[in-house]
Amino acid sequence: MVFQRYFRRIAIWATLAITFFFMLNRAVDGEYKDVLQASIDFLVLCTYSILIWQFNFALDRREEQFRNSFKSEALRLFVQSAISLFVGVSLVLVVEIIVHETIKEEKAPLVFFIFRGILINIILQILFYAVRSVYQTQQVQVKNAQLLEMSAKAQMDLLRQQVNPHFLFNALNTLKTLVKGNNPNAQDFIVQLADVYRYLLQNNQKEKVSLREDLSIARSYASLIHARFEDNFKLQVSLSPEVYESYTPPNTFQLLIENAIKHNMIGVGKALLVEIYDEDGHIIVRNNLQPKRTVEHNTGLGLENIRQRYKLLCGRDIRVDKGEKHFEVALPIV
Predict the structure, then answer these.
(1) Distance between CA 290 and CA 269 in Å, rounded?
(2) What is the DSSP string of 58-80?
(3) Which of 61, 66, 125 is nearest to 91 (CA)?
């Protein structure tokens, strides 16, 4: 039924075009005696053309039965086309014989009209299967696009679900360090952690957030890190005003800050500076490089999580550059 609605206009215009084409040839040759004769010919051509269309539509609705009956797709198509052609020719014969014998008074022999009808039937059959093939191809493309979209959404959901445990794992490690060292900032850290985590939960179900929002949570998270390392950790943001209106996957900057802290030594004489600035259509997140001799437990998320979410969000990849003194990640501006 969907295919029939899709094809209805094409069938009408194709019928009229073919009818007028064959009638024009006869009119040019002066074969019509009067308007009545031309009108009868018009009705005859339209009648069996419409009947041919309707039969093909009916046959198309039984396609599933044909598929179950024939294992070979080529054999199914051959049988279905043969039935269409046979019935189409039969309709032409019946209509032309009835009308010719009861109404028409034509100089041309009956075989001329039958031959013309069979030719029109063949043209209609070819047109039907051609349009049907295009329609099926479009439907396959639409389904493939829907499947890709569903797959991308599922992947995005999975990646988003990974962010919460990742954040909590690192935050609790930081809290453990503060409590173990009897740091007086531990209580304030817990309060701030609750605020940040609440914000994280509110935005985690989104595929993208404004860069301004994501930097807000990054700054809040940086204040938590500062409570642990004091002046040995700094976050410096320098972005063009228009960049703040762009978008990013949620918690991108927080993950990058976590990544920098996890892989680098921080302490007296080993201050860690994380810089965020824009350059050549990218947002650069850069930190000085002072690698730890042993890296804490790696969850395998971090950069790969960000990479995959950017691919799903905008189809572009992030760029990671590791030099002798600096490590930087370039995020495409979305």
Answers:
(1) 11
(2) HHHHTHHHHHHH-S-HHHHHHHH
(3) 125
Bridge partners (DSSP) listed for residue 283: 278, 331
Task: Determine the residue type at 60.
Answer: D
Q: Give the residues across from 279 on adjacent strands.
A: 282
Cα 322 → chain centroid: 34
User: What pTM was estimated for this model as a whole?
Assistant: 0.52
Q: When comparing pLDDT for 212 and 150, which is higher?
A: 212
The pLDDT tens digits for 48-73 are 888 888 888 888 777 767 767 777 77
Please name which of 225, 239, 302 lies closest in space to residue 271, comparing C-alpha atoms. Answer: 225
- The residue behind tokens 């993950």 is 255
Cβ proximity of 312 and 155 under 8 Å: yes
Helices (H), the chain: 2-28, 35-61, 63-69, 73-102, 110-180, 186-203, 211-229, 252-263, 302-314
Contact between 233 and 270 under an 8 Å Cβ cutoff? The reply is no
Residue 309 CA to residue 326 CA, distance in Å, equals 24
> How far is 310 from 180, CA to CA, in rounded Å?
37
Phi, psi of 287 (to 5 degrees): -140, 150
Tokens of 106: 């034509």
